Amino acid sequence: MTAIRKLFIANRAEIALRIVRTARRLGIDTVVPWHQQDRAGPALAAATDTVEVFGQPPVAAWLDAQAMIRAARDSGCDAIHPGYGFLSENAAFAQAVVDAGLVFVGPPAKVIELMGDKISARKFAVAHGVPVTPSADEADDPSTFAARARAVGFPLLIKGAAGGGGKGMQIVRGEDGLADAITIARGESQRYFGDGRLFAERFVERPRHIEVQVFGDAHGHVIHLGERECSIQRRFQKLIEESPAPGLAPALRERICAAAVRLAGAAGYVNAGTVECIVSPEGEFFFLEMNTRLQVEHPVTEMVTGLDLVELQLRVAQGEPLGIAQEDVRHAGHAIECRILAEDADAGFVPDTGHVLLLRTPQGPGVRFDGGVTEGAAVSADFDSMLAKLVVHGADRGLAISRMRNALAETAMLGVTINSDYLGRVLRHPAFGRGETDTGFLERHRADLMPDPLSDAQRRAVLAVAASAAPERSARPIPEPYASMGAWRN
């Protein structure tokens, strides 16, 4: 076993703070990197130490594997936790960390390579009896890819082999759109992941997105911690997650979770991972992909199981056994997570930039706010638009929904537009309350989710309250280049 005494967190914002909190509780010192354009944040204040990193654009600093490893070694760290995003699913980075004599808090590089590639992961799933949708792999014969994709049948989903987060994905409903979809998907995949390989799979209409949290240790033990429902999405990116999945038949839940454990066990999986599936309206489930890292939505699993997943990650990375058998995992109540994004959801989910002039976060029983910004922080186009995660827990789904609606109403930010009002309208929708969710929910109910127009009197009242909330901040000028940046898109 290798004790971790000082941990380098190769990430930023809310996930860096989340990891710092658990490490500090375990008596582990932490080092968090920072960039000149991202030098303010609660993670930096909470960490034992910080180190400046360099890159242009700033995101390049967190993608520089050798610089991250060098900073970790120079800081006297024993291990690196990648968080999620950036280098978290980069097999070469994971191996380089180990080669540098450090502990990588995540699965072995060979497992990341196997399961992080959608094509190899699908083939592996088939080999181990886990169902996948009918598909065509471009690599089998590039010259016949379009014809083989056509033979799978429409509607189709064209996807990048190394993609994720909705990037490099195109839905094709007929022959006329196939060629353009292939071109667009290839371009996006190459741009975001440096890998233009594609495959096509049958697009399941109105699917639910169900994922299973799995955990393995280096002693051959693999368990699951239950499932999460992640069907409320825009542009293939999740907005609301919950656990347990509402209305999921117990027998189907058992089959999905068993398949996830079987797949992870066969891969020799170690540490935290997530097996993602889609479920058809008829109750069929199909393997989608495996995320070889901690998920953004891991707090909902923590809320219903009472387990600290980051603590489990660190203990497993040190070589300790999980210490939890499948029968030891208990689920209580219901948890919901909403992603608080810097975007105008009512204007087509356009991301926003600016300075956080005022921030108010909710409090109360069963409420957890994992935030990555503070008042005075700049929200720029340099990073992802997610600013925080709001998570609630209740004795049942009804109470959890009620608590989340109240918590969203108490969440306020001036200076940057956030999506809290929109999320509140989603939770108030009768279909959401009935658990009638699938990945097309937001588009299907788009008209219902638009805000009621404010009267002139209401608008004046809102502006007056906003102005009086922080008069000394409202007069503060916004510096360049943020003042002229405008809106941006992912």
Explain what this protein looks like in three dimensions.
The protein starts with 5 loop residues before the first strand and ends in a 16-residue tail after the last helix. Helix 5 packs antiparallel against helix 6 and helix 13 (397-409) packs antiparallel against helix 14 (420-428). 34% of the residues lie in helices and 25% in strands. Strand 1 (6-9), helix 1 and strand 2 (29-34) form a beta-alpha-beta unit. The protein has 490 residues and is α+β, with helices and mostly antiparallel strands. Strands 14-13-10-11-12-15-22-20 form an eight-stranded antiparallel beta sheet, sandwiched between helices. Strands 3-2-1-4-5 form a five-stranded parallel beta sheet, sandwiched between helices. It folds into three domains: 6-105, Rossmann fold; 134-202, ATP-grasp fold, A domain (Dna Ligase, domain 1, 2-Layer Sandwich); 208-444, D-amino Acid Aminotransferase, Chain A, domain 1 (2-Layer Sandwich), CATH 3.30.470.20.
The helix-and-strand class reads: alpha+beta
What is the C-level CATH assignment of the largest domain? Alpha Beta
Q: Could you say what the CATH architecture of the largest domain is?
A: 2-Layer Sandwich
- Unreliably modeled segments: 471-490
User: What name does CATH use for the topology of the largest domain?
Assistant: D-amino Acid Aminotransferase, Chain A, domain 1
What is the number of helices? 18
Query: Mean of residue pLDDT?
Result: 92
**Beta-strand percentage range:** 25-35%
The geometry reads as globular
Q: What's the number of domains? A: 3
Provide the helix percentage: 25-40%
Q: Span between N and C termini?
A: 42 Å
Q: What do we call the CATH homologous superfamily of the largest domain?
A: ATP-grasp fold, B domain
Biggest sheet overview? 8 strands, antiparallel
| Strand order within the widest beta sheet | 14-13-10-11-12-15-22-20
